[in-house]
Structure to design on (168 residues):
């Protein structure tokens, strides 16, 4: 008969508990500063610095997924975080953002970086039943944290958010 190490049982129970968290956190950001007058622009030097600052801001958040529209500026904003946490950037079409949100509503227990565009952020917020406190405007340093908590024993899930800034 094979003996089971009690420590292994504790680790298994802990991993099952941690793997079934009811909270999902979405870090919703606009892409960093971009070149002007170019089709599908890349980031400027300031934008590249801001993307690194975003990575530094998120490093302790245990990001599980990174999502970005398929534009250069959003992918490059997500890239430093992707490289640091060794998670690929998954692209989606800007016109499919609402389908993406429906998929995100089914994901539980994850921390997600979602990089998008200023005009898409209010739509994503609205799809979660939330409203921006102040418009995005021309700011590239907005940082919106959407928290979703799944209800237990038949209670409804709840969604809340807070808005802040990162970097300069």
């Amino acid at each position: 008969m094979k003996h089971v190490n009690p420590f292994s049982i504790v680790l298994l129970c802990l991993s099952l508990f941690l793997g079934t968290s009811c909270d999902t956190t979405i870090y919703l950001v606009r892409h960093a500063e971009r070149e002007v007058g170019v089709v599908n622009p890349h980031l400027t030097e300031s934008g590249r610095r801001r993307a690194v600052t975003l990575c530094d801001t998120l490093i302790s958040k245990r990001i599980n997924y990174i999502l970005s529209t398929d534009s250069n500026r959003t992918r490059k904003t997500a890239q430093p975080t992707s490289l640091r946490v060794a998670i690929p950037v998954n692209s989606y079409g800007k016109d499919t953002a609402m389908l993406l949100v429906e998929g995100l509503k089914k994901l539980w227990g994850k921390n997600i970086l979602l990089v998008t565009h200023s005009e898409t952020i209010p739509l994503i917020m609205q799809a979660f039943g939330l409203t921006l406190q102040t418009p995005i405007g021309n700011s590239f340093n907005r940082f919106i944290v959407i928290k979703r908590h799944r209800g237990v024993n038949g209670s409804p899930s709840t969604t809340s958010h807070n808005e802040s800034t990162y970097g300069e």
The CA atoms of residues 30 and 117 lie 5 Å apart. The first strand starts at residue 23 and ends at 30. The radius of gyration is 18 Å.
